[in-house]
Amino acid sequence: MKLRLVSHASVVFRCCGSGVWTDPWLFGKAFNNSWTLLPPPVFDQSLLTEISHIWISHEHPDHFNLPTLGSLPLDFKRRVVVLFQDNNPERIFESLRRIGYRNFTAMPHRRAITIHSDTRVYCYRAGTLDSCLAVVSGGKVVLDVNDARINHGDCKKILKDLGHVDVVLNQFSLAVHNGDPDHCRCLKRAAYNILEEISANHRDLKAEATIPFASLIYYSTTDNRFMNAYANRPRDVLEFCRARGQRVEALYPGDEYAVGGSYDSSRSLANYEAVHEASGQLVYDSSPPQALEAIRESFEELVRRLRQRFPRLLLNRVKPLRICVPDLELAVELSIARGTLTVYTGGSFDAVISSQPLHYWFSHPWGFQTLTISARFTVLRRLRTWHRHKALFALYAAGVNLRPSCLLSRSNREFFVSRVHGLLRYTDRGALSAS
Fold first, then answer.
1. Which of 71, 192, 253, 276 is most buried by a 10 A CB count?
2. What is the CA 303 to chain-centroid distance, rounded?
3. β-strands 29-30, 340-344 pairing
4. What is the DSSP letter of 345?
5. 292-402 adopts what CATH topology?
6. What tens digit of pLDDT does each residue of 200-221 get?
């Protein structure tokens, strides 16, 4: 089995008689145009003839990238089989049907399925959203952990199911921010914690090698570029794990790795260093300001939708937030309880968000979560109020409906069960305190 790195979390597994392409992303930006691929992708179109399956790990746009998936040839779309975890898969499959895909498989949790006489694929669901993929071929096992933050217990289950893991592919750098203005403290700590998690996964899975990937982006707007100063690099992963007796191999886009063979990471590391040295030439976008009236209209429509799903008693417990909007040179107070967004002229505010990401938050069910991933906000005070908004919008994005007539619906039950399991695993990397 060989694997070729394309970009970010996009890898092509080349097995005997089959090929699996993970999370295709070849162009464009993600998360409200806040992430840009770096280094550029390297994809040979001739690989399409070898690819029999596409695996989508989860719904985030850096993994489920519809512009890339839509751009692929029609005959390829009609032939290839799309794999997705058995976790509300029809929403994904229907989106892909609309752009020409025809063949789909919902992958059961912790069960392998055969895609060729010598190749099996295995899915492990982690929490409410993420999933891992194992490709098993020729006696070799590669586990694509991706964004899934698996813990010691998860690793034990995976090893029980698979028997062994030869190579682990793991995310290696920052992907969330909690808005703490003390960047140096919180982001340094978060970046270090990621290295610890990679090392722990390597140890718990008894892996032969770890390959860092799924962090091949840079934060590319003027209000989130600060994140780049704290990002881990592949060399950081290699040095951290080597100090613990663990083998790490670095692949650069276009590089191919033969599982079980020898590999020299020096050229790939040199390429990454060259990218880092040229980082002063990177382009950063400034979003055009959004008019206050457009922001107000999107907020009022958002409140209308919230009232359709949540009882007033709950919404009334969400206290107002006062947000400085620097590009409009004003502050606003938003009150979900009252359904109002007004200009605020008091002396202090709770958070800082520019007008475009603020408007995006109000305009999309996933808008609040995009703030934390794009890192385009700062929280200055009243963290409890901010966290109540965060909890409310997590429910909203998940499609939860807490009106009395819907309280015991199947979708609600499934969400809360998965959330309880997720709480046993997740710790917000951006919120970890400095040691």
1. 253
2. 27
3. unpaired
4. -
5. Nonspecific Lipid-transfer Protein; Chain A (3.30.1050)
6. 999 999 999 999 999 999 999 9
